[in-house]
């Protein structure tokens, strides 16, 4: 007898002893059942049926984040990813540990609207609500027999803030996995010494930095494996070990990058190691090229975006875009991307004055350019089922000049899913600028945090002083 866990594999912060549910008889042995949900409802139910686990649950039952799409009357997903508050429906009711002043981590694609007038009986289940764009989201049904559930992820709702640090991994020349950060995607040392010439820049051990950023108040940790295109991530045991070790000491969202086929095996390995999302880079570009060739109707069902989103839900899929600027003569250019051109400002950097450019996507860690624009890739990724877009920029990487606000606004106008701005942050003010001047949902930085040029606390302080909501 005791606590049983139905398939997840990470986030045991409180150190409870538990056993895996592996056969139907385990339901009778369990006194409590925890069912964390990383997946799409239909796929999850199909899996439980195939294993003979879909039985009436009569023991105390705690479900986390699964099946919300079955309570949405529409078939259009509006992903909700990030931190939000929880307001008690009845302040006189047992709070069950929920504090309105706290923030909780959500990652899902659908909402259940709080609607007492049309669904009075259903609303008696609601414990707390949260603002979800233009409506309310039902968060925690409770007080109904043996069922208790949350739409947010308690195991990922640790101490955090609005800023989102990331780090880039690659193996150094001795085979050790290290945290590195380059300038415009070049991670080799520029200092010419006997022992450092051309060496991979080493900014520290990934797990130690993970714990450090968690304690400092980061919302989400993004692990970018920039050499994953060279081999199968399933054989990348060091990267999987990093994700697993980070999940043991970090209780925020963890997002590893570098996914390539076989997509489901890779995604499953990372999720079981403790990741919350996987990000797709080069393979997304190839998939959108195929989608464009078919007339932008729908995918062929074989891309990593589609297969992972179908099994785990679109909220589990992030597309990481690595574009670069292509400068053109603004008066003479009449190419296919003329409607996407960004024009340099007279008071902008000298390289941008009297010029125009479009953003071209790259693959293989920025090493190869493809005839795909950032607008096409963002649009196609959403059609295929991505739940979030991470927007990098090779031209700004490591420069400290600030986020490319034109690029961020361009992508935000193209898609309805959440967008994360990346590349170029050099100060706390740059975070203020990107949130004040674009509708972006999140912003990410790496090198300035690794080198401790800017502290997360300084970013949070600047955001608060600018009346931008942050978590304490």
UniProtKB/TrEMBL annotation:
Swiss-Prot/TrEMBL GO biological process terms? L-histidine biosynthetic process
Question: What InterPro entries does this protein's entry cite?
Answer: Aldolase_TIM (IPR013785), Class_I_gatase-like (IPR029062), GATASE (IPR017926), His_biosynth (IPR006062), IGPS_HisA/HisF (IPR050064), RibuloseP-bd_barrel (IPR011060)
User: Which keywords are on file for this protein?
Assistant: Amino-acid biosynthesis, Histidine biosynthesis
Give an example GO molecular function: imidazoleglycerol-phosphate synthase activity
Give the matching SUPFAM superfamilies.
Class I glutamine amidotransferase-like (SSF52317), Ribulose-phoshate binding barrel (SSF51366)
Q: Where is the Glutamine amidotransferase domain?
A: 31-159
Q: Which domain of life is it from?
A: Eukaryota
Q: Which Pfam families match?
A: GATase, His_biosynth
Identify its protein family: Belongs to the HisA/HisF family.
> Which PANTHER family does the UniProt entry name for this protein?
IMIDAZOLE GLYCEROL PHOSPHATE SYNTHASE HISHF, IMIDAZOLE GLYCEROL PHOSPHATE SYNTHASE SUBUNIT HISF/H IGP SYNTHASE SUBUNIT HISF/H
| Protein name (record) | Imidazole glycerol phosphate synthase HisHF
Question: From which source organism is this entry?
Answer: Coprinellus micaceus
